[in-house]
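W.,

You were right to be curious about this one. When I first looked at the sequence I had no strong expectations either way, so I just let the prediction run and decided to look at it fresh. Below is the sequence, 577 residues in total, followed by the output.
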Amino acid sequence: MKLTLFIFIAFSPLFLLAQKKEEIANPVYPQDYFRNPLDIPIFLAGNFGECRPGHFHSGVDIKTLGHENEPVHAAAEGYISRIKMDKGGFGHALYLTHPNGYTTLYAHLNKFAPGLQKYLDKEQYEKKHWDVDIQLSPTQFAVKKGQQIAWSGNTGASSAPHLHFEIRNTITEHPLNPELFGLPIVDKTPPVPAELIIYSGDFYYETPLNVTLADHGGTYKPVKTDDKSFRVIKDTIQVPDAMAGIGVNVDDYMDGSENTIAFYTAKLYMDDSLQAQVILDDIGYDETRYLNAYADYKTKQLHHKWVQCLFQLPGNHLGHIFHNLNSNKGRLDFTDMKEHKISILLTDDKGNTSSIVFYVSPQQMATPVQNDCTSFYVNKANNFSNPNIAFSLDERQLYDNICFKFATIPANEAYSDKFQLHYPYVPIHHYFDLQINPKRPIPFDLRNKIVMLYSDDKDEDGRAAVQTDNGWYKAKVRNFGTYWLDIDTIPPVIKSLQKDNSNLSKAKKITFEVKDDMTSVKSFSGYLDGKWLCFEQHGNLFFYDFDAHCPKGKHKLVFKAEDENGNAGTFSLNFVR
C-alpha cells in the first residue's frame, strides 16, 4: 500500500508540475566543468541580468586590469563553432560548443589565436567583408580546456577593456547565469536597495483615464538598520489606491570591485505571504527586449535610474523570470483598506541577502481625470491614421494600455509637418512601418533622397524612407516621439586621422573618421592600389592595421563611405610605407 501511494504521488500531474517549477526556480548546473577564462582572478564589472538599454545583460563582464591583450582561454574542451565580427555588439567574438550541452561566448576580443586569425583573414578577403559571421564544423578548430584562443580587448559596444563571457544552452541558445556554474568568484557583500517606488493604479503608463505610475505613487529611500536590513524613513507609506505595485532600484557589489551589479532573486511578501518572486536566469535574445516592460522605462528615460518592477505587466511576455505570482500578477490588493506589512528579500548570485520592511496604509482613491486622447490597448492591434500620417501596432507592441497623444507641428523648411506620436518615455517592443505624406511635390531626381527624421526631445537622427504606391514615404521605426520628412543629398564627411598623410613608414594603422549628418554609414570600402583592403569599423572610426597586404613602398589608397540614401564620399591617400 505504501509503495502504491508513493507511485501515485510521484507521478501525479500536480507533483510533476511542482517538481518542474522547483527545477526552474533552483536550476542545477555543473560546478567544476568550466574554468576561469583568464589567468587573473575574476572581478566583475557587470553580471547576468543587469538592466541595459533595451536588453538584459546576458553574461558576466570580467575586468582585465584596465588594459587589453590578456590571454583568453577555452573554459572547457570543445570546438570553435562560430566567429563573428561586428562593429557594435560583441565586436570580435568567439563561440565554443562543448560536449555537455553548453556553449561559451567570449566577446570584445582583439586578435584570435594564430590559426584562427589566419583563417578569419582568408575568409574576410574572399568575401570582401570585414563584418563576417562564420559557422564552423566540429573538426575545424577543436580546443582543449585551458587552451588559449584569443587576447582580450575593447571591441564592439565596449566602453572599457574587459572580457564578456557567457554560458548558453546549446539547444535553446538562451544565455544562462554564469555565476551559477561554480566560477571562482569571491563575494560576501549583500545587495543594497537604493530606492523603493510604490506604483498606484492598475496600469503602468497612461490609460484612457490618465492614471500613471508616478502621478499617484511615491519614491522612498531605504535606510540601513544593520548590515542586511533596511527600512523606509516613514515606517508606514500611505497609498491612495486599493491596488499597488512595488519597484526597487538595487545596487549589488562583489568583493574587490566598485562596480554595481544586479541581484539574482527578489521576493515580495505581504503579511509574510509570498506575492511575487523574480529570478534572473535563462533569458533568451528573442525575449530580452521585454526588459522595457520589466524595468520602469519612463523613470529610466526621464531620471536615468533602473527601477525593477516586482509585478508583471499585461504585455510583458517574459513570464518565466516571475515565480509565485499572486492573482494580480504581483500587484498588492488593499481593498480591505487595512494596514499591511510589506517585506522584500533580495539575494545575489552567491546567496548574500538583504531585506526591506515597511508598512502600507491604503487611502481613499484619487479620482482619475478624463483626457482627450485615443485609447490604445495592450495585447490588441492598434491603428492610427489621418490625411498625413498612418501606422499600425500589432498585438505585441505595447506593454500596457496607453492614452495615445498626437499633435501636428508646422515645419516650413521640411518636406512634411512634424508629427508628435505620443511620448518618447513610453516604449514600443519592435519595429513598425510609419508612413508620412509629404506636404509638397518632390522632384523626380530626389525621390530616393527622402529621409525620415526623429526627435526624442533631446537628440535627432534619421533613416532613409522609401516611396509607397500612394506617393507617401515610409520607414521602419521603434520609438514614440516626433517624426518628419526631409531631403538628404549630403554625403558622409571623411576625415583622415593620420599626422602625415604622405609618410606612414612608422605608423601601425590607417584611420579615418566618418560622420553622416542625417542617417548613418550604410557601406564602406577601401582599395589599396586597386585591391580590396580590410577596414574595420568601430563607431565613427574606420581603420586598417598594417599587415602583409600592404608591403613596403609607395601606395594609393581610396576609401569610400556611403550613407542610407546613396550619398557617397571618397578620400584618396598617396603614401609611403
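Here's what jumped out at me. The chain has four domains: 44-181, 192-362, 374-487, 493-576. And, maybe more interesting for your project: The chain is about 10% helix and 40% strand.

Coffee later to discuss?

I.
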